[in-house]
């Protein structure tokens, strides 16, 4: 076409004229002679645009690109026919085909006659402009993703002449993707495909020999991915293997209890806030320190140092803040909190007279200050506490006293070494004894009975302890090398969760994902560059469900959600991308969904889920999603950052052996003797009873 418009050609592709323009949509009146199905008037078959098909409104720079959202017939006045005299007829309303088109972007014609698609419309069409259907060449330019590295082919675009649809893995994984759709709509195949096609394409471009420096960590709740990646490299497989020596090539899944932080510990043991959690935290801290802080005076020094420091930092900005109205009330409330803490500490160290004396003296000074400056008034029947300006002398006195007490104990100490959250290895079998000892010291043994019992139950369960307390020990660095992969790269790790007991499945996923996230954070801090890693989460609604914020309850499920919310928000910076898949989008955490920049939408029938999905995409695309309930399996809408334009994709077919295989029970084949299934309850009963 060498840049000069071929007017005959254009005329042949013209199908109508613009009759109404708004900023996001236009309405088009179709020509009478526009074909209904396939148009041959261009000299080659062009299928007449259907819903979600593309049309062009040519202008000076090229053409505005729109997507058809509605086609219908409206009765209009009989159109004037130029050149013809009026008929001797009464003009009756005339059925006129019309369509509504959402504007998506601009297709620019470059000097050399090729095209380039850009999102955004610079110049709006005007009433009377011609509307045409794109040629195959133009179609390709619209769907083609011009981004650098957009080289992974994931399927074709049936509505745009079956041109290949390509994605850039940096955008797709780096900015999180959600694959949503009903059961059976093709999600798992798409997830497996996106991983496979990315790896395959990267392999053909690999500058080094051997495995790719790639990491896909797949959480597989249904155990359907075990064979899926066998034909590309050597995926690592992890599962619970106790009593079942079937899958030889998979490793026992290990999430040792020393890896859990105190939050995760509290959540799985349902430790109560007031009594049990502080004791549990302390037990963890002591175990992780290998019992080095056995000296109680030392512990008291650590405690008092932190309060001393808190007071000193409070006035580091100058004493003025003691007279600022809001600041001094905040400070007063803090003192009230200190008072409670000191009372608690005095009972804690009641066997050490020296410590009790020092703490008691400080406590009395705190009480004096509170009594002197705390005032209250009544508003709406409620007493409101506030603080008057605290004198500098009183404040300095308190700080000096603390310093004195600290000096008499041997001076300030900064607490160093692992805290209750640091993943330092310890022997799980000692935790109950440690808790018992601490609570005995505090005369609180009656409060921790249940806590100890819950931990013991967990450790006694063979399946659970196989994961949290496996006999062959693993160190932190070994764990990271095994589960995230070392220099050799392992490309895909499949974490089969199907046999993980339901009591700890949320904990297992939360701990693993947190440790992976934090290690990538540390990697980035140390190396200055992120280590690209993708975490794949199937059945995501189980792990990142909407939850009700409840400060007291730390259920493992909401903890798991919170971990993924943090990864969704911050993962990008550290090279950690998320690919989540779910059949119940409306049950997913809104925080995580809103951080996903690409959506691959399969068939969705349910109203609530459709509503939700519509809220995730820009307004003028809402109507495009009306097609969701009728999408055939294996077709999906690709929307968002990874595609230049919302595109209906016919996903590339996976070979039978490369598809995820969910283990749906095969009733029919068993009933009809097509497959064997022996029954041996004796062995099962025997094994059950000796566990
Ligand atoms: N890209 C694909 N290649 C091959 N088969 C597919 C593809 N997508 C879907 N299918 C077929 O559809 C079935 C259901 O797909 P699946 O991915 O398991 O759905 P979902 O995970 O949404 O329940 C698969 O067993 C497979 O036969
Ligand atoms: Mg599935």
Describe the fold and architecture.
With 691 residues, the protein is an alpha/beta fold. Helix content is 37%, strand content 19%. The strands form 4 sheets. It has a 12-stranded mixed beta sheet. Strands 1, 2, 5, 6, 7, 8 and 9 form a 7-stranded antiparallel beta sheet that branches. It has a two-stranded antiparallel ribbon with strand order 3-4. The protein is globular. It starts with 6 loop residues before the first helix and ends with a helix. Mean pLDDT is 84; it is low at 1-5 and 39-44.
Based on DSSP secondary structure assignment, what is the total number of beta strands? 23
Describe the largest sheet: 12 strands, mixed
Supply Rg: 34 Å
Distance between the termini: 79 Å
Q: Helix/strand-derived class? A: alpha/beta
Quaternary status of these chains? single chain
Task: Bin the strand percentage.
Answer: 15-25%
Q: Are there runs of 5+ residues with pLDDT below 50, and where?
A: 1-5, 39-44
Residue share in helix: 25-40%
Count up the helices: 21
Q: Which hetero ligands occur in this complex? A: adenosine-5'-diphosphate, magnesium ion
Mean pLDDT: 84
Shape: globular
């Amino acid at each position: 076409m060498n840049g000069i418009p071929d007017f005959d050609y254009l005329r042949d592709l013209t199908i109508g004229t613009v009759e109404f323009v708004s900023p996001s949509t236009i309405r088009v009146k179709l020509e009478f002679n526009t074909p209904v199905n396939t148009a041959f008037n261009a000299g080659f078959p062009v299928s007449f645009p259907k819903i979600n098909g593309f049309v062009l409104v040519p202008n000076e720079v090229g053409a505005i690109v729109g997507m058809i959202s509605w086609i219908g017939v409206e009765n209009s006045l009989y159109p004037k026919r130029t050149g013809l005299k009026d008929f001797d007829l009464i003009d009756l309303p005339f059925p006129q085909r019309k369509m509504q088109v959402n504007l998506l972007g601009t297709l620019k014609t470059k000097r050399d006659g090729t095209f380039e698609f850009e999102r955004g419309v610079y110049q709006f069409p005007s009433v009377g402009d011609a509307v045409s259907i794109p040629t195959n060449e133009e179609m390709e330019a619209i769907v083609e993703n011009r981004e650098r590295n957009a080289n992974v082919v994931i399927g074709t675009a049936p509505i745009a002449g079956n041109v290949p649809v390509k994605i850039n893995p940096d955008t797709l994984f780096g900015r999180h993707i959600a694959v949503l759709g009903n059961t059976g709509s093709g999600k798992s195949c798409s997830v497996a495909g996106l991983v496979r096609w990315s790896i395959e394409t990267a392999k053909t471009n690999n500058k080094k020999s051997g495995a790719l420096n790639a990491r896909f960590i797949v959480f597989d709740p249904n155990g359907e991915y075990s064979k899926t990646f066998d034909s590309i490299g050597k995926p690592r497989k992890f599962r619970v293997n106790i009593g079942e020596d079937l899958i030889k090539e998979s490793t026992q899944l290990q999430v040792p209890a020393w890896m859990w932080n105190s939050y995760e510990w509290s959540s799985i043991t349902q430790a109560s806030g007031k009594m049990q959690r502080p004791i549990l935290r302390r037990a963890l801290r002591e175990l992780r320190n290998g019992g080095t802080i056995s000296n109680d005076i030392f512990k008291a020094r650590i405690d008092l140092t932190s309060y001393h420091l808190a007071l000193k930092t409070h006035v580091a900005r100058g004493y003025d803040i003691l007279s600022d109205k809001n600041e001094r009330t905040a400070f007063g409330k803090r003192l009230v909190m200190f008072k409670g803490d000191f009372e608690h500490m005095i009972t804690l160290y009641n066997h050490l007279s020296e410590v009790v004396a020092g703490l008691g003296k400080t406590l009395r000074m705190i009480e004096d200050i509170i009594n002197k400056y705390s005032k209250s008034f009544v508003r709406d029947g409620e007493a409101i506490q506030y603080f008057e300006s605290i004198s500098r002398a009183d404040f300095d006195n308190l700080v000096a006293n603390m310093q004195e007490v600290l000096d008499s104990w041997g001076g300030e100490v900064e607490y160093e070494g692992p805290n209750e959250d640091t993943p330092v290895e310890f022997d799980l079998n000692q935790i109950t004894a440690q808790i018992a000892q601490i609570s005995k010291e505090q005369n609180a043994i009656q409060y921790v009975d249940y806590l100890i019992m819950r931990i013991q139950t967990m450790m006694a369960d063979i399946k659970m302890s196989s994961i949290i307390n496996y006999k062959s020990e693993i160190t932190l660095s070994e764990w990271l090398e095994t589960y995230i992969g070392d220099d050799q790269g392992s490309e895909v790790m499949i974490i089969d969760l199907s046999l993980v007991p339901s009591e700890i499945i949320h904990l297992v996923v939360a701990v693993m994902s947190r440790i992976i996230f934090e290690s990538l954070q540390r990697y980035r801090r140390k190396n200055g560059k992120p280590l690209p890693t993708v975490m794949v989460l199937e059945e995501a609604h189980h792990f990142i469900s909407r939850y009700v914020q409840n400060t007291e309850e730390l259920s493992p499920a909401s903890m798991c959600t919170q971990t993924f919310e943090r990864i969704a928000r911050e993962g990008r910076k550290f090279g950690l991308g998320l690919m989540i898949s779910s059949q119940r989008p409306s049950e997913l955490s809104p925080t995580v969904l809103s951080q996903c920049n690409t959506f691959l939408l399969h068939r969705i029938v349910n109203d609530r889920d459709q509503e939700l999905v519509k809220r995730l995409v820009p307004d003028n695309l809402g109507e495009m999603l009306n097609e969701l309930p009728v999408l055939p399996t294996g077709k999906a809408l690709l929307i968002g950052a990874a595609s230049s334009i919302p595109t209906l994709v016919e996903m590339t077919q996976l070979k039978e052996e490369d598809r995820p295989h969910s283990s749906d029970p095969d009733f029919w084949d068993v009933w009809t003797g097509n497959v064997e299934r022996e029954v041996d309850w004796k062995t099962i009963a025997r094994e059950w009873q000796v566990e």
